[in-house]
Amino acid sequence: MAEHAFLLDLGRCIGCQACVVACKTGNELGEGQQYIQLIEKTQGEFPAITTGWDNHRCFHCTDASCVAVCPTGALYKEDGLTRLDRDVCSGCAYCTQACPYEIPVMYEGKASKCDGCAATTKAGGTPWCVETCPSNALMYGTREEIQAEAHARAEALRARYPNAHVYGENQLDGLGMLVVMPDDPEKLDIPIDPKVPFMAASWQTVVQPAAVGLTLGAALIAGGAAVIARYRHEQEVEELEAQGVIGNGASSSEQEEG
Amino acid sequence: MARVKLDITRRSFLKGGVAAGGLALMSPTASIGAAGGMLNARDPWYLEGPIETTYNVCDICPWRCGVIVHSVNGVVRKIDGNPKDPKSRGKLCARGQGGVSFMYDPDRLQSPMIRTGDRGSGQFKEVTWEEALDYVAAALLNIKDKYGQESLAVFGHTSGDAWFADHFAQAWGTPNAAKPSSSLCLSPRDEAATLTYGSAVGGHEPVDWDGIEAMTLIGSHIGEDARNTVMQDFANAYARGAKVIVVDPRQSSVAAKADYWLPIKPGTDAALMLAWMNVIINEGLYDQDYVAEWTQGFDQLAAHVLEFTPDWAAGITDLSAAQIRETAQVMAASRPRSVVIPGRHTTWYGNDSQRMRSTYLVNALLGVYGREGGMYINKSVYLDSYPYPPYTVTGSSGGCSAEPGAETESALPLGPTGKARADGVREDFMRGATALQELIDPMISGDPYPIKGLMVYGTNLLNSVPDRERTIEALKALEFVVAIDVLPQEHIAWADVVLPEATYLERYEDLWTVPHKTPYIALREPAAEPLYDTKPGWWISRELGMRVGLEEFYKWETIEEYLDKRLVSVGSSIEKMRAEGGIITQSGKPYLEDFGDSSPFHTATGKINLYSEELAAAGHDPMPVYEAIEEPPTGYFRLLYGRHPVHTFAKTQNTPVLNDVYSENVVWLNASAAEQLGVDNEQYVMLENQDGRRSGPVRVKVTQRIRNDAVFLVHGWGHDSPGLTRAAGRGASDTQLQSRYKLDPISGGAGMRVNFVKIDKEGV
User: Fold this and answer.
1) Which of A15, A122, A256 sits opposite B645 (nearest CB)?
2) Which residues of chain A neighbour B658 with C-beta distances below 8 Å?
3) Phi-psi sector, A202: left (phi>0), alpha (psi -120 to 50), beta
4) Does the model's pTM come out above 0.90?
5) Could you report the predicted ipTM of this complex, rounded to two decimals?
6) In this structure, is residue B748 part of a structural domain?
7) pLDDT of A2
8) Overall domain count for chain B
9) What is the pLDDT of residues B162-180, one digit of tens each?
């Protein structure tokens, strides 16, 4: 089956937050829980300024460090996207530390992030954010369709923004969300070359092999590993939370009006 | 790819029914095998049972998108745009998505109530509808007997307002029916349009976005005012490469996308427009054939703008002459596919009709009206009215849903006891829809005659009408106040009787008839039974009418009967509309060539009035001039206000899901001004205006995105009604800080950007 991907066209996005609320209502997210946040980023001094919106949401990396560090399999790759099963999440919060884009957060004791509207798309629907976007800045389709559209849009956008390009073809073995980026991604505080943290890489060599190819037994092993790991790192996580390195809610105070 | 597999019970799939309608989800059971894999643990709402769909018209903002409402087991779960609707085209904004949460807000008014404590105390007893309606009817008849029908004012806002501010008021016989959407918003725009090209702009601005090549926005905030259609149209035009010029003291969302952002000094827009006309005329950039055929007064205008050079305007606007000249050239290069967009909220400085006229004159020079890619001519819907007897008084409430040309007659309509509108029209201002804020003084002073009763529907009086203290004085002076609303807004505490209305998702409504490129009719039908002891507006209006002797205006027994009767004239019915997707579209006549030898412009000459004889005759400048406005005193900033994309008016701040995304407003303060004042980003401050009115605490947003002579607040915050449990005490109220306004002498609009505030760091 062809893998799927999202397109996010920041040339078109006008920061209206329709996606944010469509996601919250379609997925019936809880109070304080958001999978998408629009964060205003302004460069320069009045009046010579540029402003854009970081559509802060899961990039669905192929080389997904959140998946690599997840001890229970709650995070996993499917159809090119990074899924999250909160029923299986043990709440260890490793994913919140491992993600180079700082996407997963803890919500009510478990990880919280966009799962690509797994249930909705499997029932034949379109991801809620894509369905509603008034600016047509979001698309969902096979990776080939999305790639072609992204390049066509970036090409057209170069008439206005000479540095316009497609972001996400090379980062972390390719992102499940390709971004039409009008300019340097660092202007939106999005890293040009995101790195899988050392911790995530080491997890891959320890936990992952135990899980490969196994079924229920592996789940028990992985679950057991999670319990042990969680015990060993509980204190560390608390400390990180206290320092504000990892969040204990989904909503960030960075949220600003556009 | 191998990975850990866990056994998740797929009961959620198995119990689901077959989805129907616009959601386009497949039968869930059929999809399991193909998709495989795991799901988020929680059962998605759409698998809980069969999805029922109903058609509706969104009420969350005044734009009124056609929507499809999805319910499961009688509970409303999700709202999407209706693909057949010419406004939503299947999409929906953040606010519209919040409609479900608006309906299920536990803070809603739940039962009819009669006041037991003092006015303003918020003390009520719950009563039956029978008791409440009888009480209101007796009070209304008492006012009629003592003072005449004209002494009842009716204010209406939101999508059921026509049942009260139009139908009930006109049947009852008061000319004092008003809507904030007129004199607190659109009046200058629409009166200037009527004076210039013969008709109001209309609720759906007739910009021909599909072919537009350049757009100029004057303080218009696409993306923040969040009109769904306009965001779609803008994004498509922008992606096509259409040029964008934005004139705004603040780098709004759309200014951030602009090719040219002109951070103009507030209140000087007319100077810029005059200089643009100077360049367009003197450099021969105007559409000479169009101007010759379709306008009158060109020679006078050319002579008039001769002295208003870019150099002259530069000194006034804080823009450079080169910038002014270049943008004029860019605009003209794309004509007639180049439009100064009419905008919407235009009550700014009190000189607003003249400013709006200047934007239309630029458009006329560019040959925009009736041209492809410019402004099309919108056409009204063909649909019969319900066969009522003639109304007791002709209406003039205007509003965003009004048909063009609401009030153009020189003789004012008189009520049954011979009294015309009490808002000072013809004396204090020239013409236009009834000016809501001008009806407040007569409530206090009794001049020109007493207004003793107030019926207020869906209008947050204390968070939308400037000079809040004056409004409270009026609320104290009135003999009788009845409020019909969904939420316990601030003014509810001042009512004698409160009638709780069902939300738009729980009621039928009159048909929407939208003048448009393709005029259309939209249906609203209930998606669920009304919650609590609430009733639809049409029902409340009818029950009151039947009790005060207006039976002949409410001959229909049910709303379905009323709607079906109207739909006969277009060969349709509620059932047929349902079957056909909730929308009936008719054909339009958008362009000049569709009119043959006749003119689409309803002016006396059939031409666009560059020079206005009507204005000259009424003692106003026949062509726009620039007049300087009062500057903020030292230490004060001009208070600008606008929208956040997630909230509407003073209405949605308490809506749980929208409040969750944006839970308080912030005051935008220029970074260097903040540094001088020693104010940090996110610091809470109080705002105090020139008259000592205070509001806050409110967080400061230190930003490069605004000039240093103005601050900006999102409108509608600073609620203090304790019944609004999420919104109360959050942010600052711009209305509280608007203790004064400047009356537009042409349209009666209340210019509200004439207030100044200082930042108080200590009194938080």
Assistant:
1) A15
2) 21
3) alpha
4) yes
5) 0.93
6) yes
7) 80
8) 4
9) 999 999 999 999 999 999 9
